[in-house]
Amino acid sequence: MTDPGWEAAWRPLVDRIGSDLDEPGVRFGPDPVEAGAIRRWLEPLEFDCALHRDAEAARAHGWPDVIAPYTAMWTFVLPAVWEPGERPTFEDGSRDAQPWRSVISDDVFPGAPPTSGMFGTGISIEFERPLHVGERAGSGPRRLLDCVPKETRVGRGAFVTFDRQMFADGGSGGGPEPICRVEAQLYLYDPAPGADHG
Question: How many angstroms separate the CA atoms of 50 and 148, rounded?
């Protein structure tokens, strides 16, 4: 790695700190919240709570229907990972293979130089309320909070921090309601030759 000016390639993204990275509006996940999806999410965890399975119990505690666990929000907000008729998500079996499309790497950062690797380095979520059966979950535009170019043992890239608001829409005509704010950081990078990525 002998190019001392590689950090300059990140300057267009650094200049966007404080601005929205996506078009305005809410992008909704593919399916509404349903009791069966909540049950299937709970089963492998062997997690029992009447609020997540019994509509009467949920109503007795002030909710309009069964609620999803807070951590199940991603199940309903993320776009489909794979659709019928598409090629396999992973076409290469190598150690550092990347999917041709992913719900995370589809988060293109306008102004960022192209990179071939990425991983998450941090996330925090502040919830206002849970989702309930019948609602659709969606995400608003990402706002860029920080971009720090850095060379690490795995390669050269940048730590990119952004936040976004998540919403629920029950279709009652009231419009989307905020359910939580997510702040996340990714390291976007090109692997260093010979670096151990395991």
Answer: 45
Q: 101, exposed or middle or buried, with CB in 10 Å at 0-12, 13-18, 19+?
A: middle
Instruction: Find the distance separating the first CA and the last CA of the chain, reported in whole Å.
Output: 20
β-strand 155-169 against 136-139: which pairing, if any? antiparallel
Backbone angles phi, psi at 127, to 5 degrees: -90, 145
| 40, 52, 115 from 188: Cα distances, Å | 33, 37, 6
C-alpha–C-alpha distance, residues 101 and 115, integer Å: 14
User: Is the separation of the CB atoms in 120 and 186 below 8 Å?
Assistant: yes
For residue range 145-156, what is the model confidence (pLDDT) as tens digits? 999 999 999 999
CATH number among 3.10.50, 1.10.8, 3.10.129, 1.10.287, domain 6-28+82-191? 3.10.129
Q: Which residues pair with 67 in a beta bridge?
A: 132
**Percent of the chain surpassing pLDDT 70:** 92
Taking CA 128 as the corner, what is the angle to CA 147 and CA 63, rounded to the nearest 5 degrees? Answer: 150
- Tell me the pTM: 0.81
What is the domain partition of the chain in residue ranges? 6-28+82-191
